[in-house]
């Protein structure tokens, strides 16, 4: 678990774990497959099969009259000209563009602070900041929904002290920020822990060496700490990207509280859910699901490929 | 924030980073305020909730017990049922996913076999497939098989955890030396025995982490059970509370009594995982970094 293995690890270990001749390779291969087997079956049944099935379903259309007919890509052309889908997709993209930098900056800042400050209070804070990760998204959204609410929330009282009207984070204008806050609150602690652990893994003699060379704390942070935790930063960026593009739970829960601000087609996933379970339009729902999955997959893969050299988790 | 770090670190030793500690204090308030709100308001009745009193402080009569009683008796005690369902799904799904990940991660790290590189690339690709994209097609598959609206509809898809396999692979590759396994083999241990008695004990930190991540993911899952289940009695607590919340929001007047149950229900539902995280701290703290250190 040292940091030096970042770049050189895979080729080296591959050679190392090639066992001495003497055992029959076929036997070893078989045992290898036996270990992978159980997971492989689950993988085929609950990942490959649904994906293939979604693709298959998405090529058909079910009509009231005439039954199911093969329409090839018609569902996709429909999706990519459907304002509901496009608006939802545009929303999650905009949301990711704001959310991910904010979330990463906050979690990085917190991790850096907790790396420097070592008091009891700091240790306690670290745990408490992480706590929201253990909260189901549904409950987290609900808690914040209460805090935002005019009926139960403290915002009215707090802003009333200054003679101002409280912002309504459940209104059409501010729901973007309302959701932004919830997701940041929920995940920043988890990302902080990942970054903090990476920072703790840095060899402290590096700092001493830098100090002897005249580097201040600020320089150590920028030139040593942050570059060395780049793999961890990339990892959380990928997590955040995958998570945000499939946004569903929070807007679904806030929908009832934020009357009118969140429609049934607010995010692509909510739209797919509505099409499939609200309108029994499984073919179109599958097409949206598959398109969403494919887009996320391609985006993340391209991103990882582009950043591979800097030690992403694909390397 | 940048200024604070700079200033504090320059006057490092004597001040114990006081500005940073104050900043941490503010962060702490932010991260804890929703919990505080729920704790305070789960003690109130409908009058206390809607009466316009201080939302962040207790009302005149603090009635935790009364609300707890109401929560666990409401609608024939359905909430207990939901808690048990959540526990069942999280434990079976989480333990199953972890067992599969341990086996597969070990297999990928310690054996050469045809198709290994290809399978591993597919596995990494699978980490990037959003889980929710699978829900609708899985639902249709399950409905053909008559599995929807059963516990299996939630448990079986929860067994899939490609990221867990990846974590186990990285950990085993770095933490379990080949020499040790070879030595066990020389001493006459079979493949299974060297896995169970040599490798497995060394994999414990990663195992606890993957277990915790899988249990949390299943306990917190909402989309999958929401899509799969239509029977109230099978709901996990997330879907159940989501449903109550929908009912309470729909009829504003009649729903007032339901709100205090929902708030108490939210509080109770987060306690098990918080306890799990606090007690298992020692184990997961190091483990969470596995994927990012390499």
UniProtKB/TrEMBL annotation, chain A:
UniProt keywords, alphabetically: Cell membrane, Membrane, Transmembrane, Transmembrane helix, Transport
Domain of life: Bacteria
Chief localization: membrane
Membrane-spanning parts: 30-56, 91-117, 129-147, 174-199, 228-248, 287-306
Membrane topology category: Multi-pass membrane protein
PROSITE patterns named among the record's database cross-references: ABC_TM1
Cited Pfam families: BPD_transp_1
Cell compartment(s), UniProt: Cell membrane
Coiled-coil stretches: none
Gene Ontology BP terms: transmembrane transport
Disordered as annotated region, ranges: 1-21
All residue ranges annotated as the ABC transmembrane type-1 domain in the record: 93-305
GO CC terms, sorted: plasma membrane
Family membership noted in the UniProt record: Belongs to the binding-protein-dependent transport system permease family.
Protein's name according to its UniProt entry: Sugar ABC transporter permease
Organism of this sequence: Jiangella rhizosphaerae
TrEMBL record, chain B:
Protein name as it appears in the record: Carbohydrate ABC transporter permease
Keyword Membrane tagged: yes
Chief place of localization: membrane
Family: Belongs to the binding-protein-dependent transport system permease family.
GO (cellular component) term, any one: plasma membrane
Family annotation (SUPFAM superfamilies): MetI-like (SSF161098)
Taxonomy of the source species: Bacteria, Bacillati, Actinomycetota, Actinomycetes, Jiangellales
Keywords, alphabetical: Cell membrane, Membrane, Transmembrane, Transmembrane helix, Transport
Mode of membrane association: Multi-pass membrane protein
Species annotation: Jiangella rhizosphaerae
Residue ranges of every copy of the ABC transmembrane type-1 domain listed in the record: 83-280
CDD domains reported for this sequence: TM_PBP2
Any matching Pfam family: BPD_transp_1
Biological process according to GO: transmembrane transport
Keyword Transmembrane: yes
Subcellular location(s) of the protein: Cell membrane
Transmembrane segments: 20-39, 88-108, 120-145, 151-172, 206-224, 258-280
């Amino acid at each position: 678990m040292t940091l030096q293995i970042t770049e050189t690890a895979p080729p080296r270990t591959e050679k190392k774990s090639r066992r001495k001749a003497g055992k029959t390779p076929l036997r070893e291969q078989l045992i290898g497959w036996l270990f992978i087997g159980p997971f492989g079956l689950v993988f085929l049944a609950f990942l490959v099969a649904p994906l293939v099935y979604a693709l298959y379903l998405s090529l058909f259309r079910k009509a009231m009259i005439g039954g199911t007919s093969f329409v090839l890509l018609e569902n996709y052309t429909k999706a990519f000209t459907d304002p509901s889908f496009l608006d939802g997709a545009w929303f999650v993209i905009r949301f990711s563009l704001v959310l991910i930098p904010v979330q990463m900056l906050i979690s990085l800042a917190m991790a850096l602070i907790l790396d420097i400050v070592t008091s009891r209070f700091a240790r306690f804070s670290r745990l408490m900041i992480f706590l929201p990760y253990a909260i189901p998204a549904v409950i987290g959204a609900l808690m914040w929904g209460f805090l935002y609410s005019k009926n139960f929330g403290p915002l009215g009282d707090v802003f009333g002290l200054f003679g101002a009207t409280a912002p309504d984070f459940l209104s059409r204008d501010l729901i973007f920020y309302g959701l932004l806050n919830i997701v940041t609150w929920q995940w920043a602690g988890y990302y902080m822990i990942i970054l903090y652990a990476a920072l703790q893994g840095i060899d402290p003699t590096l700092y001493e060496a830098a100090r002897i060379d005249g580097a201040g704390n600020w320089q150590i942070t920028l030139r040593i700490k942050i570059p060395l935790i780049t793999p961890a930063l990339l990892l959380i960026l990928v997590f955040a990207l995958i998570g945000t593009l499939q946004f569903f739970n929070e807007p679904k829960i806030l929908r009832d509280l934020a009357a009118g601000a969140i429609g049934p087609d607010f995010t692509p996933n909510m739209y797919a859910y509505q099409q499939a379970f609200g309108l029994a339009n499984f073919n179109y729902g599958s097409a949206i699901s598959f398109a969403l999955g494919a887009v996320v997959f391609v985006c993340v893969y391209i991103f990882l490929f582009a950043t591979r050299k800097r030690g992403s988790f694909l390397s | 924030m940048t200024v604070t770090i700079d200033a504090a670190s320059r006057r490092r030793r004597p001040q114990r980073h006081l500005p940073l500690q104050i900043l941490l204090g503010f962060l702490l308030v932010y991260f804890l305020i929703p919990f505080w709100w729920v704790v305070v308001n789960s003690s109130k009745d409908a009058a206390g909730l809607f009466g316009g009193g201080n939302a962040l402080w207790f009302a005149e009569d603090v009635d935790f017990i009364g609300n707890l009683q109401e929560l666990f008796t409401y609608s024939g005690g359905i909430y207990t049922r939901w808690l048990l369902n959540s526990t069942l799904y999280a434990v079976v799904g989480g333990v199953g996913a972890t067992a599969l990940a341990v086996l597969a991660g070990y297999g990928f790290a310690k054996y050469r076999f045809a198709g290994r590189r290809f399978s591993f690339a597919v596995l990494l690709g699978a980490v990037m497939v959003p889980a929710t994209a699978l829900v609708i097609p899985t639902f249709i598959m399950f409905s053909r098989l008559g599995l929807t609206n059963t516990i299996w509809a939630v448990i079986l898809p929860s067994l899939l955890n490609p990221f867990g396999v990846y974590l186990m692979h990285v950990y085993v590759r770095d933490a379990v030396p080949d020499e040790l396994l070879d030595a066990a083999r020389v001493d006459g241990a079979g493949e299974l025995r060297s896995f169970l008695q040599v490798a497995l004990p060394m994999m414990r930190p990663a195992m606890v982490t993957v277990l915790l991540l899988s249990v949390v993911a299943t306990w917190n899952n909402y989309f999958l059970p929401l899509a799969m289940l239509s029977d109230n009695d099978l709901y996990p607590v997330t879907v159940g509370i989501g449903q109550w919340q929908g009912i309470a929001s729909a009829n504003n007047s009649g729903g007032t009594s339901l709100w205090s149950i929902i708030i108490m229900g939210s509080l109770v539902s987060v306690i098990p995982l918080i306890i799990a995280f606090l007690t298992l701290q020692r184990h997961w703290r190091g483990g969470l970094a596995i994927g990012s250190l390499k």
